[in-house]
Write a structure and sequence with these properties.
Layout (H helix, E strand, L loop, with lengths): L1 E3 L5 H14 L10 E3 L5 E3 L76 E2 L9 H9 L8 H8 L1 H10 L7 E4 L1 H5 L6 H17 L3 E5 L9 E3 L2 H11 L6 E5 L3 E9 L8 E2 L3 E5 L8 H6 L3 E4 L6 H17 L5 E9 L4 E7 L9 H8 L4 H14 L6
Length: 391
């Protein structure tokens, strides 16, 4: 199992790894936990899931379970992306943005990966869920659980994910893409940059306020904000740009947020879908942000979602279409909106959904009759049966 990583969801990955370590069948699997520190070093870690749980408002990190080699300085401290990660030091938390220079070269990737039967990546966001580790494992000829290179890349980028969804006939929320060159302009851009900003503002205004502003390639609601006017949009875009140079602005949808979990079909069959669940936020937050998800959990999920049976079936059908539209494998969670007029909109697909104690992907499968230990077994078994080669 590989967890942690250099992205802003490092702590969420650690929490999921703790849950998985505690529930994997040790009579069936010999587990080798491998952590990726925020500075990019790969280290063998102790098998201590209790140290990977959130404690109060303190988020876990790979450093909490890393062996003594994690205290050694990187081979090149000046290498791009290098950062301090002393065991017991400050927890990176959700404020950590990916280094624009990219990840530290993975010179410390342990050779033990060459001897494992299959890798279970519990990684989120940049350098983990976006096709980077999937490509590395395929190059090394190592089997792994979950989506392949194409599905990971397309699903991570909300712009291209939406384009693929629309091409497959799935209704989506109206959106605007804010690219770095359009927002920043180039040297000496002058009036051109001003005109581009105006074009962006006009396009967002056409969506209708309020809107949600998100990093195009992010998750866990990190860097996401709700904006009710142009001034708030400017602030929200600048906030999202801390995590990604490309930003997505979506019209806020007045409706229920409904999720559906998906598994790759057995023996080449069609995808299997769970009972959908509806998010219920009880803490007064405007949306399900990072605080509500992890630090001060105020949400719950009604499973099955309290919607008509025909809507349940249609959401399950659309979840399978979304899964196959991006050529997904392994497992995923597909998120929807169900509006007051009865419209179902596909919002996004998450190819490595959260596996923490509060995550809804395993909860939906448990309500469908597949508890987490059996769910993990199926995910691993499917990966072991997969035909070797590029995916």
């Amino acid at each position: 199992m590989v967890f942690g990583g250099q992205g802003p969801e490092h702590a969420i990955s650690c929490m999921g790894a703790g849950t998985v370590l505690a529930l994997l069948d040790r009579d069936r699997y010999e587990v080798v936990p491998v952590g990726i520190l925020p500075d990019g070093r790969w280290v063998l870690t102790r098998d201590e899931p209790e140290r990977l749980a959130i404690s109060g408002r303190t988020l876990p990190t790979v450093a909490a379970v890393a062996g003594p080699e994690a205290a050694q300085a990187p081979a090149d401290p000046a290498a791009p992306g290098a950062a301090s990660a002393e065991p017991g030091g400050p927890v990176p938390g959700h404020a950590m943005a990916p280094d624009p220079a990219g990840p530290t070269p993975a010179a410390s990737v342990p050779q033990v990966l060459a001897g494992v039967d299959v890798v279970l990546p519990i990684l989120h966001g940049p350098f983990g869920e976006d096709r980077t580790i999937q490509g590395m494992l395929e190059t090394a000829g190592v089997r792994y659980v979950g989506a392949g290179v194409l599905a990971s890349a397309v699903s991570m980028d909300k712009e291209y994910m939406k384009l693929v969804f629309a091409a497959r006939g799935l209704p989506i929320c109206p959106y605007v893409v804010v690219r770095d060159r359009d927002w920043q302009g180039g040297p000496g851009a002058g009036a051109t940059a001003t005109a581009e900003r105006k074009r962006i503002y006009d396009a967002i205004a056409e969506l209708g306020y309020p809107v949600f502003v998100k990093p195009a390639r992010g998750g866990s609601s990190i860097g996401t904000a709700k904006a009710a006017d142009q001034a708030a949009v400017t602030e929200a875009i600048e906030g999202a740009r801390r995590y990604d140079a490309k930003v997505i602005v979506e019209r806020a949808v007045d409706g229920a947020e409904i999720e559906c979990a998906v598994l790759e079909g057995l023996d080449g069959g069609p995808p299997d879908t769970s009972l959908p669940g509806q998010l219920v936020i009880a803490g007064g937050e405007e949306f399900y942000d990072f605080e509500a998800k992890y630090l001060d959990p105020t949400g719950s999920m009604a499973i099955p979602a309290p919607v008509p049976p025909d809507v349940i079936e249609e959401i399950r059908r659309m979840a399978a279409v979304a899964f196959e539209s991006v050529s997904c494998q392994g497992f995923a969670r597909v998120d929807f909106f169900y509006t007051r007029d009865g419209t179902i909109l596909a919002n996004e697909i998450n190819t490595i959904p959260g596996m923490t104690a509060t995550s809804y992907f395993p909860k939906m499968w448990e309500a469908t009759g597949l508890p987490l230990p059996q769910l993990l077994d199926r995910m691993i078994t499917t990966a072991l049966r997969r035909r070797p080669g590029a995916h």
